[in-house]
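Reopening this one. Same input as before:
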Amino acid sequence: MKIILVSLLAYLLGSVPTGLIIAKRRGVDLLTAGSGNIGATNVLRTTGKGAAVFTLIGDTLKGTVAALIGRYFFPGNLYAEGTIGLFAILGHDFPLFLKLQGGKGVATSLGVLSIYSPLAGLFTVIIWVMTVLITKYSSLGALVSFGLLPAGVLLVDTKEKLPLALLITALLFIRHKDNIKRLAAGSEDRIGGRT
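Same output, byte for byte:
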């Protein structure tokens, strides 16, 4: 029962629409601006760098705090800690407050990894940054870096953490299905364009 209650708390935490709140304070409705997504990339395109940075920090902290809560209530229990972290990501991707229409989960997933598997999280960030710098595609950076996450976990952590890595990767690819189609068609927006 305790893990269910804590997982629900993590889901509600993940559901807080950081980007939407920050953009609205600057007079921008993310649900109708740009791609309609509530994540940092759309905030960058529609609201600017400062707002995007705060969105990135807020979305990351949702995952970090959820993983810390999991560790506090279930010390040493990787299954419980991973489940609670996953619920925070699900909250961001499918928020209760926005009719289940949320973000892509990149920053929140990295927040969870920062506690659950810090070295694998760092590996993922480095790959994401390198891919984005080379291609200027945020979505491609996410797909490449999280596609390599399971391998990263096996390289720098224990195989017991692989199931969560696989779930995070699968969820991220599902949330990026439209981006994958646009990348294949050559119509995906690059970072730096402003809506």
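So the earlier flakiness isn't reproducible anymore. For the record, The mean pLDDT is 91.
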